[in-house]
Specification:
Length: 396
């Protein structure tokens, strides 16, 4: 009786596949003090980031990122746009008035509360009214017409909108954008810990939890449902309301805007104030921001859980006439002031200890030249749980 020789080439291939699936991949980690370094990520779970024998706890993790292919997996003519600026390509499945079921190209069908959504856009639509406040639903047609009413049905074939006594159903070929009315939202939702997952192809979404095993990212949604995705398609994972909370995602207790003349530039969150460009797209290296114009004052309530506030800022214009005064108030007491803020530079990091303050206010005041081109942006304005250690001088 003879035995066949084992196929060592085949065995080596299997071992290589197993080894590859379990091998750590290199990510860029940004910690709670905004310092970045490369780490080999073996897995991710509730304890934090596992790298070899080390575990980096979540209270010291702001963001993980890696280089990915920027092209989407499957081209799609429709994009679902979230209130925070996230996007998912795909197509609608159904709508019950409260929840939109969306078939994402990579993730399959997921339900999203309508109050978390701005709307559905045809690729190529770039109207400046996407994040405007709306008292009703709006359907913008490809021929330029606009319909105001209540969207009652959204399906693969089209959209039904109630306009007075009429309820026309419009096919997607005739629609440029479906924009939902502005909901009050639930402030508690903005304060929960969660994760912002960025995908290749300029897609992203917020989820309640994440884990990573064998190069598969599992995303858990608020309704406890889960979706899995190959980690090579994940450009980044940002922790929300962990060691850092972005002011751009929180509703201000007071939002004051006083134009000098007839200009109309109310504050825009995570977008520039004039063009509406996403902050992260225009200001590379920054995650979030608030676009505003003189005179503006944004006040946020504090709950005693945060140690400090940090931000950089810049004039969002090339005009040499732009000139503003920047102030940060704790309660009603000035804690920081910078006069004659000009275009052409990003100003250094400002860190303000909050102590026992009940509120923080960000003010952009008129400077010289009235309010000429006084477009302004707060860059990565954030509450932080821990103040950075003071710099020490090197020993002689």
């Amino acid at each position: 009786m003879s035995l066949e020789r084992p196929n060592f080439g085949f065995l080596l291939l299997i071992l290589a596949i197993i080894s590859s699936s379990n091998a750590a991949t290199n990510w860029n980690l940004t910690d709670a003090e905004f310092h970045s370094r490369s780490v080999a990520v073996d897995s991710i779970d509730s304890a934090g980031i596992h790298s070899g024998a080390d575990v980096i706890p979540w209270d010291n993790v702001l963001d993980l990122s890696q280089a990915v292919n920027s092209q989407p997996a499957t081209p799609s003519r429709l994009r679902l746009i979230f209130r925070g600026g996230d996007k998912l390509s795909g197509a609608p499945v159904s709508f019950n008035g409260d929840t939109l079921q969306w078939n994402g190209n990579r993730l399959g069908t997921i339900g999203f509360p309508v109050d978390s959504l701005l709307g559905i856009l045809q690729n190529g639509y770039s109207g400046s009214d996407i994040d405007a406040v709306r008292t009703d639903d709006v359907v913008r047609l490809a021929n330029g017409d606009i319909m105001h009413g209540i969207v009652s049905q959204i399906a693969p074939a089209g959209v039904t909108i109630q306009v007075g006594d009429a309820t026309p159903t419009l096919g997607w070929d005739s629609i440029s954008a479906v924009l939902f009315s502005t909901a009050a939202g639930n402030p508690a939702t903005l304060l929960r810990r969660g994760f912002h997952v960025r995908l290749s192809g300029d897609e992203s979404l917020n989820v309640a939890d994440v884990s990573l095993t064998a190069n598969q990212l599992t995303m858990t949604f608020p309704d406890k449902s889960t979706k899995q995705l190959d980690a090579t398609l994940v450009a980044g994972i940002e922790q929300l309301n962990g060691p850092v909370a972005w002011l751009s995602s929180r509703k201000p207790a007071e939002n004051i805007y006083k134009p000098f003349f007839s200009e109309n530039f109310p504050a825009r969150f995570d977008r520039t104030v004039a063009e509406g460009t996403p902050i992260a797209e225009k200001y590379h290296g920054f995650h979030h921001g608030i676009g505003c114009h003189s005179y503006s004052k944004l006040t946020y309530d504090l709950d005693g859980k945060w140690a400090g506030f940090r931000s950089q800022f810049a004039i969002d214009s090339d005009s040499p006439l732009a000139d503003v005064t920047v102030r940060i108030y704790l309660d009603d007491t000035p804690a920081y002031e910078q006069k004659n803020v000009k275009a052409g530079r990003i100003y250094p990091l400002v860190i303000t200890p909050l102590k026992d303050a009940k509120s923080i206010s960000l003010e952009v005041d008129y400077g010289e030249n009235y309010a000429t081109e006084d477009r302004f942006v707060w860059l990565d304005p954030a509450l932080i749980r821990k103040l950075p250690a003071p710099a020490t001088e090197p020993s002689p």
